[in-house]
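Journal club prep — side note

Before the paper discussion, L.F. wants everyone to see what a predicted structure for a comparable chain looks like in token form. Sequence:
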Amino acid sequence: MSYSVTVRDHMMIAHSFTGEVFGPAQRLHGATYVVDATFRAADLDADGVVVDIGRASEALHGILAALSYRNLDDEPEFAGVNTTTERLCSVIAERLIAAVRAGSLGDGHLTGLEVTLRESHIAWASFEVEL
């Protein structure tokens, strides 16, 4: 049993993929993602919340702002990797985990985090981690 709180934002990026499996996506193309970050806790904190929604929203927005309106192919941190939806989920999750560990998202009682990127109304990917 656990509680959860989800915050949502979006980002727009450009990228291309390497590998025949990606077909036409090997060419430079754009993607607009709706991004959900779900924070989980076994219990509520002293204020009766899983995570402060305002803080969680700000953290997610800041992470996405650093990626938005960029061609990820040109970003050194992504050199040599395909910036698939799945990989971007894990990158965003890792950055949110850093914010959790830095104490900017509460008292450390969070037990899990899930990041979901929705490419469209029919396709999305998620990355989930226990804290």
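L.F.'s comment for the group: Residues 67 and 75 are 9 Å apart (CA to CA). Keep this in mind when we get to the figures.
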